[in-house]
Amino acid sequence: MPARLAGAPRRGAIRGTDLMAVDWFTLADRPVDEVRRTLGVPVRSDGAVAVGSVGPWEPGGVSPFQLGASRALARERDVPYQTHGAGLRADAR
Length: 93
Fold this sequence. Notes:
mainly alpha
């Protein structure tokens, strides 16, 4: 997670746009790669991938807090929780 988080501001800065100002809800139903291309955000660098950076829908793509909060929200809303492939790294469980 730290490698992924560290790379995100760099990739956003390359774009030259304040990604915090984007209305992400208008893009939520689109595939991540499509949104990345639309906003001009480059893919993760080879260096980030080499140190273990993973995407959000891969093992290690979410933190224990994110996983717990998502499961709790699903329980609260009485809906099934779907990971779509996301999960903790095997050594973080």
